[in-house]
Amino acid sequence: MLFRDVNLNFTPGNIYGIIGANGAGKSTFLKILAGDLESTNGQVNLGSGERLSVLRQNHTAFDAFQVLETVLMGHEALWNVMQEKDAIYAKEEFTEEDGHRASELEEKFADMDGWNAESAAANLLSGLGITEEFHHLRMNQLSAKEKVKVLLAQALFGKPDNLLLDEPTNDLDLETVNWLENYLAYFESTVLVVSHDRHFLDAICTHIVDIDFNKIQVYAGNYSFWYESSQLALRQQQQQSKKADERRKELQEFIARFSANASKSRQTTSRKKMLEKLNVEEIQPSTRKYPAIIFTPDREPGNQILEVSNLAKSVDGKVLFSKLNFSLHRDDKVVFLSRDSRSMTNLFEILKGHIQPDEGSFSWGQTISKAYLPLVYDHLFENDLSITDWLAQFSNDTTEIYLRGFLGKMLFSGEEIYKKANVLSGGEKVRCMIARMMIRNANVMLLDSPTNHLDLESIQAFNNTLMKFKGNVLMSSHDQQFIQTVCNRIIEIGPNGMIDKWMDYEDYINDDKVKELRKQIY
Ligand SMILES: Nc1ncnc2c1ncn2[C@@H]1O[C@H](COP(=O)(O)OP(=O)(O)OP(=O)(O)O)[C@@H](O)[C@H]1O
Ligand SMILES: [Mg+2]
To answer: How far is the CA of 200 from the centre of ligand 2 (A)?
Structure first.
């Protein structure tokens, strides 16, 4: 059982960030709300005549449709009217009945602002960087990344009264994430968004919905507020000696401080009011579990780590990078950036020896051993294995007691180690992939979007481990905080060149010289 006795009311204008551990049931909850899955008990009511729209996870469902059509289909009622109208006008014989129906439809069409629909859809697409030459292509002619943007436009199209987004930032580049943050800031509908991205949650949320211990609870405030206040409540719980009114005062001071600093977030004033009204008794301690992510390299890397010379790669006729040159030094923790995330995936796949570069070469040092977290691993889970047997595939020692140690560190305990690999949630799969990496005792980490799907506690644990890690890290990431705290070197790769800086991520993004250079490499 995932949860019971859930009674919630979501109000327009608010953005609810749904958080909870991997496997807590967030995706299941959204599926129930969207009507894709039946709940065992209870019901879901929408306001009368309200529209609900969902960011689709199945990226190929609309392959047969044109891009602009796909967006219009996001408003189902309008789309149906358009289809019926077109069918009537296409008839050779136009009966009186058809005439009536057509005028009825025209009226509905106008009511739903149909005349502006196409231009509104086109605007949304353009805002997302899908320019006009793409609007009449078929979906299957688009890259995976472009498809995600079209599906996002589909979900947002026609300002639905209720919007459900399940991990929308996973496949988006940072620029699009920023676009979405700004877009949602002016959105007047009810938005429920599952996300593990701290920065994104803080930027958009008015409320946090916490799914934990079979319960779902709603708190006012953004993620940082929820996190800080629940940590404080936890500390207080441990200091039983403190008097109740002292604890209360401490909490109130915390809320006052926090609402004074809430300037960065959206709807500052209304949030402030909300926090002032907040009953301090409502704050609950957080009892989340942190996985123990421990990488113990067999040995430290020697002086020769990695030399890359003149590497080039194109896909589908598009140059991802060319003349890529760099060598890795001790203690380098590198984030690779690019407007096209396929660049990083291709680079890592080349460096891991899975695919060939078009030009150039690279060599790893003798002392180097690598652990890889690829972007795509779903196929590894499409089998009938228990997670213990799944992990055994990658281990020399296949005794249950040995494997249980790693699974336990990744929070699979008790009977859970017999769970089938193919029913795991998104984040549970990543935890298995991390267990697989831990077994390797490598001194170089290749990580392609490592925080995708992971819950905030796992991200934190991963983050701390990588900060302390004695070997090298090469990664791509959409998580600004993760990059900022782990990496000391940035390599941005474009079709026309590269930028290579030992710099902080925040400095890099704001540096005027870098801004100039970025124009030249794409
Ligand atoms: N058919 C099944 N049999 C047994 N357990 C299942 C089945 N389908 C899903 N589960 C389990 O239900 C739990 C909830 O899954 P769900 O996908 O809702 O999690 P989630 O909160 O969205 O997690 P994540 O953050 O990782 O996406 C998981 O532990 C998952 O393994
Ligand atoms: Mg999920």
So the answer is: 17
Q: Which helix (H) or strand (E) holds 474?
A: strand 472-476
Q: Which ligand minimizes its atom distance to the CA of 459? A: 1
CA diameter of the chain: 86
Closest protein CA for atom 6 of ligand 1: 423
Q: Which residues surround ligand 2, an ion (CB under 5 A)?
A: 27, 426
**Closest ligand 1 atom to 24 CA:** 21
- The number of the ligand 1 atom at minimal distance from the alpha carbon of 29 is 18
d(CA 81, CA 105): 6
User: To test ligand 1's pocket by mutation, which of 18, 19, 28, 214 has the most ligand atoms within 8 angstroms of CB?
Assistant: 28
Can you give the three-state secondary structure of 151-219, one letter per residue? HHHHHHCCCCCEEEEECCCCCCCHHHHHHHHHHHHCCCCEEEEECCCHHHHHHHCCEEEEEECCEEEEE
Which pLDDT tens digits describe the chain residue by residue (522 residues)? 555 556 677 888 889 999 998 988 898 888 888 887 666 666 666 666 788 888 866 677 888 999 999 999 999 899 999 999 999 988 888 888 988 999 999 999 999 889 999 999 999 999 999 999 999 999 988 877 788 899 999 999 988 999 999 988 887 877 888 889 888 888 888 999 999 888 889 889 989 999 886 778 888 888 888 888 888 887 877 777 677 777 777 777 777 777 666 554 444 555 555 555 666 666 777 667 889 999 999 998 999 999 999 999 998 788 999 999 999 999 999 999 998 888 999 999 999 999 999 999 999 999 999 999 999 898 999 999 999 999 999 999 999 999 999 999 999 999 999 999 998 998 999 999 999 999 999 999 999 999 988 988 899 999 999 999 999 999 999 888 899 999 999 999 999 999 999 998 989 989 999 999 999 999
Which H/E stretch holds residue 337? Answer: strand 333-337
Report the top-level CATH class of 306-521.
alpha beta
Non-local (6+) Cβ contacts of 428 within 8 A are 22, 23, 412
For residue 20, report the distance from its CA to the centre of ligand 1, in Å.
12
DSSP structural state of residue 411 = T
Please indicate whether residue 27, judged by its CB atom, sits closer than 6 Å to ligand 1. yes
Task: Check if 166 has its Cβ closer than 6 Å to any atom of ligand 1.
Answer: no
Residue 170, ligand 1, Cβ within 6 A: no
**Domain residue limits, the chain:** 221-282, 306-521
Cα(159) to ligand 1 centroid in Å equals 30
Query: Which residue is closest in CA terms to ligand 1's atom 1?
Result: 423
Find out whether the beta carbon of 411 lies less than 6 Å from any atom of ligand 1.
no
Q: Are strands 359-364 and 370-373 parallel, antiparallel or unpaired?
A: unpaired
Ligand 1 center to residue 35 CA distance, Å? 17
